[in-house]
Design goal:
Shape of chain A: globular
CATH class of chain B: Mainly Alpha
Distance between the termini of chain A: 22 Å
Radius of gyration of chain A: 13 Å
Strand content of chain B: under 5%
Number of strands of chain B: 0
Number of domains of chain A: 1
Helix content of chain B: over 70%
CATH superfamily of chain B: Heme oxygenase-like
Radius of gyration of chain B: 18 Å
CATH topology of chain B: Heme Oxygenase, Chain A
Order of helices and strands of chain A: HHHHHH
Order of helices and strands of chain B: HHHHHHHHHHHH
Number of helices of chain B: 12
Oligomer: heterodimer
Structural class of chain A: mainly alpha
Number of helices of chain A: 6
Number of strands of chain A: 0
Number of domains of chain B: 1
Strand content of chain A: under 5%
């Protein structure tokens, strides 16, 4: 599984995960009243959205507020475990249908 | 927010959403697979899997019926119904495989069927019924994407057989899904790209998938947390 490219990307993602815990920020972000860059910078002045892969930035920019609300519940796991940059990467679990 | 269709790439978008939360399920899976008492835990895992999988076909039948109701005025529902109609026979009797796996381990199927499923499993499956009846049956595709998208690998199954010490006959369900599910995942991804869901539909598919990852991981965590009780009460052969 491909992971985020660097510790700087992880830091930017951590700032994003922290930011979306706020309902107000989620609403502003969904309505394009605050940019991804500003949202991340406001949460962590040392973090930079530009450190995230472009595909991840695009993905984050298209999330709805309800999806962000659910994602915010995963905050710590999401940041500690990194993220899957490629949607085609195989991953194996014990889930079955 | 408009109801315009999301351009192609719906499958890729969904896989990325799942990818963001999948570490939660990978962690739970590893917690069970690498547990020193995995031999004790495996029958509990099969029971939990049975509780989930026995709902697969009924969920698809329910979604298909709802999609057929909506189909005359809803192109996404009109495309969903034939997919489900084709897919339902492919999933028939997988709950039976699980009962047979448990019988190989010495468990009586009547006892398995008598035991109440956990609220965690009920919430996992129940959420799908809610979305199907009260929003749109396309939500079920998120659930299917999770449960068919990340099956055990053959190597993972071999390691589990070795670590539990059980006969290979007790792993029919895992072996079957390791073989079948990659093909089913590809079929679903093609459907998602063809459906062109609206932004709202894409959202509910994503919510369904991400919620399912979390709820199923919680169900697996509960299996692992039951170690003391399993060791004391259910002395698997």
């Amino acid at each position: 599984m491909e992971k985020g490219s660097s510790k700087r990307a992880d830091r930017a993602l951590a700032a994003f995960a922290a930011a979306i815990s706020s309902p107000e920020i989620r609403r502003l972000f969904e309505n394009n009243e605050v940019s991804l860059d500003k949202m991340i910078k406001d949460k962590d002045g040392e973090a930079d959205a530009g450190d995230l892969p472009e595909s991840v930035r695009s993905f984050l920019n298209n999330l709805t507020s309800e999806e962000m609300r659910l994602l915010s519940r995963f905050g710590e796991t999401l940041v500690n475990a990194g993220f899957v940059a490629s949607p085609t990467e195989a991953a194996f679990t014990i889930a079955k249908f | 927010m408009g109801a315009e269709a999301v351009a192609s790439g719906a499958a890729s978008d969904l896989r990325r959403k799942i990818g963001f939360v999948l570490p939660r399920l990978l962690e739970a899976s590893d917690g069970l697979l690498t547990h020193p008492l995995v031999r004790k835990l495996y029958p509990e895992y099969l029971f939990t899997s049975h509780c989930v999988i026995r709902a697969s076909v009924p969920l698809m039948e329910t979604a298909k019926a709802r999609a057929e109701e909506l189909a005359p005025a809803d192109p996404v529902a009109a495309s969903l119904a034939p997919y489900l109609e084709q897919h339902i026979p492919e999933e028939l009797d997988h709950d039976e495989w699980l009962l047979e796996d448990l019988e190989v381990l010495g468990f009586d199927r009547a006892d398995v069927l008598l035991r109440p499923p956990s609220p965690t499993v009920a919430a996992l499956v129940g959420a799908q019924y809610y979305w199907i009846f009260h929003y749109h049956p396309v939500a079920l595709l998120g659930y299917i994407a999770v449960f068919e998208g990340y099956p055990p690998s053959p190597d993972m199954v071999d390691r589990l057989i070795a670590s539990t010490g059980y006969s290979r006959d007790a792993f029919r369900t895992m072996i079957g899904h390791a073989e079948l599910d990659p093909g089913h995942r590809d079929e679903l991804d093609r459907l998602l790209d063809q459906l062109a869901p609206t932004r709202e539909q894409s959202t509910v598919i994503g919510l369904s998938a991400m919620y399912s990852v979390d709820a199923f991981a919680s169900a697996i965590d509960e299996v692992v947390e039951e170690v003391p009780a399993v060791s004391r009460v259910s002395d698997a052969p």
